[in-house]
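Hi R.,

As promised on Friday, here is the backbone we talked about, encoded as structure tokens. Could you run it through your design pipeline when you get a chance and send me back a sequence?
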């Protein structure tokens, strides 16, 4: 079953009460409501079909509170290409019916029973094997891996046809199943971690009870290592490596190829002690060349072995509208354990799960915030530092990299650092107006908090002389009331008074405003700290929109217009 949090998707306000009851059973699941129709949902979406297909392709479990037929028709085009199949359920708006539709091998029937219990109704389960035996043999619980799905289908078909079966190995979840058991049966369900090819009469299920502890700098041929001691790769729970190898690409590639977590320890020899103390059961240790292999009696929880490599993502929310946030940023926020940033931006990034820790600070505490983020990530946490717009444009990416550059802490340098882009305010404002930045342009901050005003004046003069379109961030504030006026005087030395100017305030947020004026008409009083100022070049054009207002664009030709 997928470990991703489910998405509860609703179309109308009448579904919200049922959705909240389901959310009590799945606290990590967020309720997605149709924009303009549903108030009070955790998130809003614009188009039902596109949203449902996106969740499906991202392997996100879907709980759709609508007619089953709507879900079937929406996802039908994706079913032609068989790939990942997350659980998909249709739930009646009033909670009177729970219908599992897709994802039988992803735990959809388990979810159906859970949701039905929460709603106090009977789930509409139609899977023959589950109805007959009370369990899905092809979907063993977390910690176990089914060997061969196609062979498993034939195996279950034989059982449904009347064959009996014997169980070999430890399988606690089968103790309450209604299997036709017979100690002399031809068919066998075999649960162990031994290597070897299953016979035609076996359903092989592998407990994930093996850990390979890798020597520092050693080779990563895990398959050969396991085969040398007679263990199946399917039984691997995780790889354990030394902290000194935390940033070693080959290790991450090997873990990814095996689809297992990669964990880290201070010393390789700690593995046996950890497993014995954490699980209270016997663990056998095998030497395998430079590596050590630990084998437990029951499946192992990788989260209790060593620690993960910490992750720090610096993300850009875009201008504010949810539909202008790039999907990679949304996914990073969903996986985070800790979210750091200026309080206004952190609130914009929500809502958050109860287990996600928010660290809100003042907008001026950038370096302190960056260092705090590295300290958290160095503990193995998944940390997000939030910026509005794009994190690399007058935002937190530079501060985070500066903190890392100045640090000699090896733990910080071992953190998995990612910079994820967002739609910058200048680009969002330009898109609303048309294309005022359609040719060469210059982006500048008029704040002299971190650089001398003399530098700003020099750059302004050169950029204006070069006839670049200009985008002003941080144009004015109570503590900087005169700088914008001076900047406009400098630009006016190189531009005519009728040069188009675009003023975008809170673009992408509630109450956004867009105004087109000219350099001659613009005064500092028309601008505040939340306004983006775009000043055109000598070629920037303005013409009327059919619905009112004006289009502004800077053509891509310069000087002579092409034929």
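Update: got your reply. Pasting your designed sequence below so it's all in one thread:
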């Amino acid at each position: 079953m997928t470990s991703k949090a489910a998405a509860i998707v609703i179309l109308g306000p009448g579904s919200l009460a049922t959705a909240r009851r389901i959310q009590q059973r799945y606290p990590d699941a967020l309720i997605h409501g149709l924009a303009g129709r549903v108030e009070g949902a955790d998130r809003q979406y614009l188009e039902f079909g596109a949203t449902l297909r996106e969740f499906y392709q991202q392997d996100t479990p879907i709980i759709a509170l609508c007619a089953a037929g709507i879900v079937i028709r929406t996802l039908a085009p994706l079913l032609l290409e068989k790939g990942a199949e997350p659980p998909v359920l249709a739930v009646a708006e009033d909670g009177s019916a729970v219908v599992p539709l897709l994802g039988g091998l992803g735990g959809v029937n388990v979810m159906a029973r859970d949701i039905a219990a929460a709603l106090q109704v009977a789930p509409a389960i139609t899977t023959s094997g589950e109805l007959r035996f009370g369990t899905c043999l092809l979907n063993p619980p977390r910690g176990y891996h089914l060997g061969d799905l196609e062979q498993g289908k034939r195996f279950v078909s034989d059982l449904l046809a009347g064959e009996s079966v014997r169980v070999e190995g430890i399988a606690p979840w089968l103790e309450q199943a209604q299997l036709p058991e017979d100690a002399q049966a031809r068919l066998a369900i075999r649960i162990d971690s031994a290597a070897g090819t299953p016979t035609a009469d076996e359903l092989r299920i592998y407990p994930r009870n093996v850990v390979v502890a890798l020597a520092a700098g050693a080779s990563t041929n895990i398959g050969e290592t396991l085969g040398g001691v007679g263990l199946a790769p399917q039984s691997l729970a995780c790889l354990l490596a030394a902290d000194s190898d935390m940033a070693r690409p080959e290790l991450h590639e090997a873990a990814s190829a095996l689809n297992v977590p990669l964990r880290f320890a201070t010393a390789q020899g700690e593995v046996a002690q950890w497993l014995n103390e954490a699980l209270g059961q016997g663990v056998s240790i095998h030497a395998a060349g430079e590596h050590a292999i630990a084998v437990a009696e029951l499946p192992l929880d990788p989260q209790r072995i060593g620690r993960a490599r910490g992750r720090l993502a610096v993300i850009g929310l875009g201008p504010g509208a949810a539909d202008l946030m790039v999907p990679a940023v949304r996914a990073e926020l969903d996986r985070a354990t800790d979210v750091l940033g200026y309080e206004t931006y952190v609130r914009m990034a929500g809502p958050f799960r109860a287990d996600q820790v928010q660290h809100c600070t003042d907008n001026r505490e950038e370096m302190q915030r960056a260092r705090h983020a590295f300290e958290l990530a160095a503990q193995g946490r998944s940390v997000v530092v939030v910026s509005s717009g794009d994190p690399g444009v007058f935002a937190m990416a530079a501060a985070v990299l500066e903190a890392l550059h100045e640090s000699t802490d090896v733990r910080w340098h071992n953190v998995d650092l990612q910079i994820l882009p967002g739609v910058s305010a200048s680009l969002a404002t330009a898109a609303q107006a048309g294309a005022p930045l359609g040719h060469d342009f210059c982006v500048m901050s008029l704040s002299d908090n971190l650089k001398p005003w003399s530098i700003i004046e020099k750059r302004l003069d050169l950029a204006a002389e070069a006839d670049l379109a200009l985008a002003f961030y941080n144009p004015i504030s109570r503590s900087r009331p005169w700088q914008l006026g001076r900047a406009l005087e400098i630009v006016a030395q190189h531009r005519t008074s009728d040069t188009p100017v675009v003023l975008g305030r809170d673009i992408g947020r509630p109450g956004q405003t867009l105004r087109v004026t000219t350099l001659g008409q613009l005064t500092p009083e028309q601008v505040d700290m939340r306004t983006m100022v775009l000043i055109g070049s000598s070629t920037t054009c303005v013409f009327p929109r059919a619905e009112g207002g004006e289009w502004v664009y800077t053509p891509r030709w310069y000087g002579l217009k092409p034929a």
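One thing I noticed while checking it: Residues 366-378 form the longest helix (13 residues).

Thanks again,
M.
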